[in-house]
Amino acid sequence: MHMKAKDPAGTESQVVDPSRRHLLSAAGKGLAGAALGGLTAGAPGPSRAAESRPVRWGFVGTGSIANWMADVLQSAPSATLAAVSSRRMASAEAFADKFDVGKAFDSWAEITAWDGVDAIYVATPTSVREEISIAAANAGKHVLAEKPFASLESVQRIVAACRANNVAFMDGTHFVHHPRTVSIQSRMIDQVGAPWSVDSAFQFSLPDRSNIRYNPNLEPMGAIGDAGWYNMRAAVEFLTPGAALQASSTFLRRDEETGAAIGGSGILVFDGGATSTWNCGFDSGPVIMDLRISGAVGSINIDDFLGQDPDDSAKYLYRKGGWDPGAVRESIRIESALSGAALMFEDFAAAVADATLREQWTAATERTQALLDAAWQSALQHDQA
User: Fold this and answer.
1) Fewest CB within 10 A of the end CB: N or C in the chain?
2) Which domains are delineated in the chain?
3) Rounded CA gap, 372 and 234, in Å?
4) In 3D, which of 104, 110, 134 has the Cα closest to residue 122?
């Protein structure tokens, strides 16, 4: 069911009933598979069939992202937080007290070995992410890892360990789990046509040089890995055809004091001429999360593609036509009972029970990291020129 209304600006608004989620999911998966010539590189779409009991989570790391995710997890029906670990016991205990977690460890080796958790969330610097993820998989634990990864080869080693131990693997990209993503994918051909351009920007202010993102030893790619990951994932979800990447050109902005990559911009060019231009960085005044998808039929614009409204709904603007009276300018709102981050835990629970879903999420991670690697290598070449 659709409902239409006028927003305050007079733009026609359409609300998609959340009861259509599974219909949209099926359509989205079909489109993604067709676009990639058999490789489902985008998100598989919502499938919330969780196990009979919630997945018991162990968090490795107590930083800001882990705190945020612990808060989010409380709204996910298929998840419960059972344990936490940190390099310092005081940090682990403070985190445990804050979120009412039953067990605290001062070693990731102990939490991954403990039989009181089913899955490990790896919220650590990139430099140690692979080691902990593989150890968790070898201990029979499912793995949700923050991103980026050190390289595509690193992702593939993690995936190999997860497959060998029959456990699920997923990266921590949350916007792909919100039903807005699947809604756009399912209506892409009708609304946009074959997309030939995805333009994205993720920029915000992070002036604190004590943050690990300013440490090239812990986060070698800096802003390109941390923020640019989302630019690459936008290309995977909304553009990437089965055609190979033809070229990548990236330009960096580095912090003079630390040498960290604090921003960058670039373009990805694919077979057939489709392109993705992108900007990311820690050196922006306002928070910018813009996305535009363009095709021969129409365009889709989002000014918060990584977020959603306070009620967990999310909007996008659909435009078709030019200056003629029949031009379309429609604001479409997608309702959701949970945030994209909370739905990530629900989708993870579904992947625990369904090996097919695991492979679809894995393909999306590998494709994203491959694009990120290409962008980073291009940046280094420009640095040396």
Assistant:
1) C
2) 2-40+175-345+358-384 (3.30.360.10), 55-167 (3.40.50.720)
3) 12
4) 134
